[in-house]
């Protein structure tokens, strides 16, 4: 493991434990050259799942794209990054449980929306406005009415 501070390749593992999600391993490391400490995470990587984009293109599934999108929807909202990562972990587990090699991006979006609605309705509305590709105010008003139910 390369040190993120000095790029030295020799590090020592000081502590290892199962991370909160139960799906990854958290390791505390120390660089043998600069003595700085840092944390790494290991997770099991299953078979590659490809996401079918709206334009028909295919890209490998990347949970960090979910994290990035959800962070944008929570801009200036009172929510922790840990909750966002937990949401992304849940979506990733649901995708992998389906045991498919391809999944439409629309399906992943629905998984995210289902979880967001229970966490923060403003974030849900922001994410949904991008997901549904709203183009005018009347579409936005219809979506706003939908969340009120």
Molecular structure report:
The protein has 149 residues and is an alpha+beta fold. The chain folds into 2 domains: 11-43; 50-148. 44% of the residues lie in helices and 21% in strands. The chain has 5 helices and 6 strands, in the order E-E-E-E-E-H-H-E-H-H-H. The strands form 2 sheets. Strands 1-2-3 form a 3-stranded antiparallel sheet, with no helix packed on it. The longest helix has 17 residues, at 81-97. It starts with 10 loop residues before the first strand and ends with a helix. The mean pLDDT is 88. A zinc finger (unnamed) spans 3-34. Its cofactor is Zn(2+).
Keywords:
three-stranded mixed beta sheet, 5 helices, alpha+beta, three-stranded antiparallel beta sheet
Layout of SSEs?
Blueprint: E1 11-18, E2 24-31, E3 37-43, E4 50-52, E5 58-60, H1 63-73, H2 81-97, E6 102-104, H3 105-119, H4 121-131, H5 137-148
Parallel strand pairs: 4-6
Antiparallel strand pairs: 1-2, 2-3, 4-5
Helix pairs in contact: 1-2, 1-4, 2-3, 3-4, 4-5
Please identify the oligomeric state: single chain
- How big is the Rg? 19 Å
Helical residues, percent: 40-55%
Question: Averaged pLDDT, please?
Answer: 88
- Tally of structural domains: 2
Report strand order across the widest sheet.
1-2-3
Structural class: alpha+beta
Query: What best-fitting shape do the alpha-carbon axes yield?
Result: elongated
Discrete helix count: 5
The count of β-strands is: 6
Q: Helix and strand succession?
A: EEEEEHHEHHH
Kindly report how far apart the N and C termini lie.
Answer: 50 Å
Q: Largest sheet, described in full?
A: 3 strands, antiparallel
Low-confidence stretches: none
Beta-strand fraction estimate: 15-25%
Protein name: Transcriptional repressor NrdR
Family: Belongs to the NrdR family.
Zinc finger (unnamed): 3-34
InterPro entries: ATP-cone_dom, NrdR-like_N, RNR_NrdR-like
